[in-house]
Amino acid sequence: MSVMDSLALTRIPAEGEALRAEIRAFLQSTVTQIPAHVRAKSWGGYSPEFSRALGAKGWLGMTFPKAYGGSELGPFARYVLAEELLNFGAPVGSHWIADRQSAPLILKYGTEAQKHRYVPGVARGETYMCIGMSEPGAGSDLASVKTRAVPGEKGFVLNGQKIWTTNAQHCHYMIALVRTSGSSEDRHKGLSQVIVDLKLPGVTVRPIEDLSGDSHFCEVFFDNVQLAPDALIGAEGQGWEQVTAELAFERSGPERLFSSIVLFDEWLAFLRTEKAPRAESLKLAGQVFTRLAPLRAMSVAVQEKLVQGHSPIVEAALVKDQGTVLEQYIATAIADDVMSREADDSAAQLPAELLRTLNYVSLVAPSFTLRGGTRSILRGMIARGLGLR
Ligand SMILES: Cc1cc2nc3c(=O)[nH]c(=O)nc-3n(C[C@H](O)[C@H](O)[C@H](O)COP(=O)(O)OP(=O)(O)OC[C@H]3O[C@@H](n4cnc5c(N)ncnc54)[C@H](O)[C@@H]3O)c2cc1C
For residues 233 and 176, what is the distance between their CA atoms, to the nearest angstrom? Predict the structure, then answer.
């Protein structure tokens, strides 16, 4: 079967769509008053209050079993929720990673005790987790991680450093990819995943300021951190397989299509106020729609594969690669459209909030093709999947 065969058109089933209207009404009343340039932070926006409000509605842990605080509503219900949250620009950053991948990972590989300990808090919007994969010398080449958890009588002793860890300064736990045996030359062998309580002695979290002035990602240092034996998630030495499966969840969702959508909406709202929108602006709006629609269909098709229990790693890479290209195109094309008005009369009427939103998205857009795996790495995976490498 080729990659394209496995991206057959899929519809979101009726039970998945069922909550859309209620979710929209909730977001209309809770999110729309937030200024667009703040909503543009999208899944980078941070609000524990908002996360707890979603948890109270049963809209976190939607796919988790009820025994661990979930609502067992199914992955398509969660997909619809994610689409709506992103389209409104809801501040979902506090819970996003825990709900999307950390708790599902624990549910898949963790012990009963770990599931009961960590997952219900995620479903309530009270427990936040971050991803500890990248290190200064290991980003694209994750197999060369050097952070080491040495097994001993009392559990593991953790030493090393992670970097670019989104929201580590606000999170309770990190799920870290570490070496528990062998050396970096052993590549995939000897890697494991451990859960690290970020309040433990020996953990230092240092935020890094980005181009936009936000400090949403961090360096995290481990200096002889004593981890309990039950910090290990899954089997020792199975970290590589676990991380690879986790990345399919991370790469194919609507967050890889909608990072610039608040800007796009704000720009469309501006065009609607014009007496006679410029022909080239209307053409651009049409171009964005016609690129977005098939990408969304591809993302839904990957979701279907995940629902069926497959691990569509190459297909997810395809969605992320093309989705993030479009997210970046929206920012540059709208900047061209807006800035090319300088010489004509409409420049004076450009809304300040549109310009603030454009400024923010333009500053962060380069990161869209880095986070979650760079464009070159994804294209290498796609080429391999097509038998071209
Ligand atoms: C906004 C943001 C949030 C992030 N959040 C997290 C997080 O929460 N947790 C986490 O663990 N990480 C996170 N990251 C890190 C991210 O996953 C890495 O930046 C990314 O994987 C690239 O790794 P690197 O920065 O070490 O770059 P490098 O791997 O050093 O790559 C540098 C350049 O070389 C290219 N390159 C490298 N290897 C190859 C190759 N084999 N073939 C072709 N080209 C290659 C890359 O494409 C890139 O252009 C985040 C990054 C960003 C931007």
Answer: 10
